[in-house]
Amino acid sequence: MAGGAAAGEPGGQAAPSTGKVVCPSCQRKLADDARVCVGCGIYVGSGRPILTARGVDEDILYERSRKVVSPISWLIPLGIYPVYSEAMGRHRPYATWAITAVTIAVSIWFLAYQLSGSTKMRSMKNLMLWGGQAEPEAGRIRLLYEYTNYGDREAFLAKREELSATMPESKLDQVALKELGPEEQCFGQYRHSQLITHAFLHGGILHLAGNMLFLLIFGSRVNSAIGNILTPILYIVLAMAAALTQLVMSSGQPPGAMLGASGAVMGMAGVYLLLFPIHRIYLTAWFRWGLVAGFHLSFKFFAWRGFWVVLFYIFFDVVAVSLAVKTGTAHWAHIGGLLWGIAAGLVLLVSRAAYSGSDVLSLLLGRYAWGLIGRPHSHQKDMT
Questions:
Q1: Bridge-partner residues for 286, per DSSP?
Q2: Is residue 189's pLDDT more than 90?
Q3: CA Rg, the chain, in Å?
Q4: Would the pTM count as exceeding 0.70?
Q5: Domains of the chain: residue spans and CATH
């Protein structure tokens, strides 16, 4: 290693040491020309960490990504998605794999009932997160009864007919809805359990695939840093926090349902941002041109630092919320998830439940962060 080796480092002859250069973390005497302590993985002068990363053959990753994107681009003509993170950890991410598998299974089960037209959806709709306290619009009520199996359409039409002679047309749909039983209504009722169950449901295969890809990229790396016991607990807490944020910020809107893991996933991205801010994430971007260009596929493969990737994706949510744009996406759940994830990342670092060797505090403060997160050498036993 350029600049000298730590005293006692195997392989090669160590440079002479007079004891003037000492690792500020482990207090080991180093060679006089040493600039790093290999054992602690830090620069001696600043105490900032030496960045280590998972190796990857970029050519192989490029070819694999292109093979996957090529057929997908016929369904999604334009996209930009992460495919690999070079961040390292000490645990195999079994918890993230399990969460992904359970989410896929439950989502497909839920979708099957939605598409089948089963009357069981009249009760199963309450697995989604229902929020909004304003009076629903008449058009929205009729739309849900016509195109979903959330409520009893015949009961609604019968109640509407029954009330038609007693009130104006403009109030008929809302009043008829209120007089129906919970399973006959096209809207669900809020239950505390929905703060968790909504994160395991998705509105379609593409919705599911996109969220699971992000979970595997960000969640597995967080999992590798905090272990397989803390990960599912953290994931559930972040799902609940993101859902509560959405509920609070959308309370003045008409009732509606939210489903999907994106709030929890953005929470994991927030933790990732604290633990691995400058590790590179490889992304693919593509555009499938139309008939004029012979349906040519333009494909780009590149890498960004982790903080740029997270900020890029949250940017669209911030813009949508700032401009009050209605897109059918739970933007506040994304924003809330990210902010709560950042807060959770700080708690994990300060409580010393997580250590990545490349976290934000270490990178910014160097040895001055040790009072908060512990000295690097104290984590070495956990890192092996």
A1: 79, 299
A2: yes
A3: 26
A4: yes
A5: 1-47 (no CATH), 58-93+198-383 (1.20.1540)
